[in-house]
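<discrete_fold_record>
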Amino acid sequence: MQRMPVQDLSGPFSLLVVDAIGPLVVTPRGIKYILVFVDYFTRWVEAFAVASLDTNSFVDAMIEGVICRHGVPERLLSDRNSNFTSNLARSLYETLGIMKLFDSAYHPQTQGLVERFNGTLMGMLRMYVSETQTDWDVYLPRVLFAYRTAYHEGLGDTPFFSLYGRDPVLPIDLAFLNTGKDWKSNEVAVYRRNLYHSLRNSRRLVERQLIKAQDRHEK
């Protein structure tokens, strides 16, 4: 089996790993899958709620969600599902000069990285969804933000800092909880307070999930 030399990772998005989750409970918006992209270098994650796992959904997410935000990755690792190996997908790789790799012939730790994240993500979403579980796509962006700003033992930092070289300005950093401030609307004050507590709890839950995942990986 071909191994991945660490020195081959030249920087962020030198190796991108893609996987899919689902089918999940269908949301009112017709969504039932998640496409997950993990940057192996920084552990930064992009995840997109999609209605299907066809090639068009993958290519759209790749172009609009990954490339338009972060640039073209050097290499892309996936399994051999048809949405990643179709003529359209291959055309994308060839046009942009992306080296396509498959998990069966590459370092097993790389695919394991995205699989561990998938478990963490699902554990987080289960803590937020309603009893019907049809609103998981609504909470996906918030959970992703919590994950990106949570400390990772393997990195020694957060994915956010590893990618941007700075810490984000978090709601907890702002002075919106200042009880002496005269808010024009009580509804605004309540919303800000609820947002603060929600994001704070999200970060704590992510960190606990990461510790559990690390413990399982080391056993």
The helical segments are 55-70, 82-85, 87-96, 108-128, 136-148, 159-164, 186-218. The CA atoms of residues 116 and 213 lie 7 Å apart. The longest helix spans residues 186-218. The mean pLDDT is 80.
